[in-house]
Amino acid sequence: MFARSLKKIFNFSQSSQKLTVYQLGNPILREIAQPIANICDRKIQQLIDEMLVTLKKSNGVGIAAPQIGRSLQLIIVASHPNERYPHAPQMEPTAMINPQIVSHSEETEKGWEGCLSVPMIRGLVPRYREIEVAYLDRQGNPQTAKLTDFVARIFQHEYDHLEGKVFLDRVESTLDLASEAEYQNILQLM
Ligand code: ZN
Questions:
Q1: How far is the CA of 10 from the centre of ligand 1 (A)?
Q2: Beta bridge partner(s), residue 148
Q3: Side-by-side strand order, sheet with 62-64
């Protein structure tokens, strides 16, 4: 009984750790991530919990497993309004395993993006305005969803991480890059 409750505490403290976010230049961010076969494995479930904590503590709207050093096809999409994205829609943080883009609109739209792995830089990135996606949820159930606008943008940004890409690869011109401080000025004007 005592041992079991200790184990519980140990698990809790492990899963509430904020993980180190790997930064641009680390080769793992350029690898193609591997699909996950064993979603119910305790280690995968713990990884999802740790990514949720890391994302929350970073006040981010999305994170991909390669960003915390695991080259696996796992992303979390967690749109919510915040200082950086005041107009973002609110949603429950959602773990998406082995995600796919099934179809997309012809229409693209440029929008500002940042990345926990690319600190202090913002870029105007063209993304499909609407996408249909398929993924497995953390219980291993297949899910499909139609995502639009900001949430579609988050998905495409995180999906890129699984293909070894970062948003800097998607900007059409270096003129579409800004420092964090200048981005804040631009936001004031929007
Ligand atoms: Zn990113």
A1: 30
A2: 130
A3: 62-64, 74-77, 94-104, 130-136, 142-148
DSSP summary character for residue 39: T
Beginning with the edge strand found earlier in the chain, give each strand of the sheet holding 177-179 in spatial order. 108-115, 118-128, 177-179
158 counts as catalytic: yes
Go through the domains of the chain in sequence order and give each one's CATH number: 2-189 (3.90.45.10)
Q: Which of 30, 14, 12 is nearest to 164 (CA)?
A: 30
| β-sheet bridge partners, residue 94 | 77
pTM of the model: 0.89
Expressed in angstroms and rounded, the spacing between residue 165 Cα and the centre of ligand 1 is 9
User: For residue 74, which phi and psi values (nearest 5 degrees)?
Assistant: -145, 125
Options 158, 163, 172, 180, the catalytic residue: 158
* CB hemisphere CA count around 9 (13 angstroms): 6
What is the per-residue pLDDT across 98-150, written as a single tens digit (0 to 9) for each?
A: 999 999 999 999 999 999 999 999 999 999 999 999 999 999 999 999 999 99
Count of helix runs (H) and strand runs (E) in the chain: 4, 8
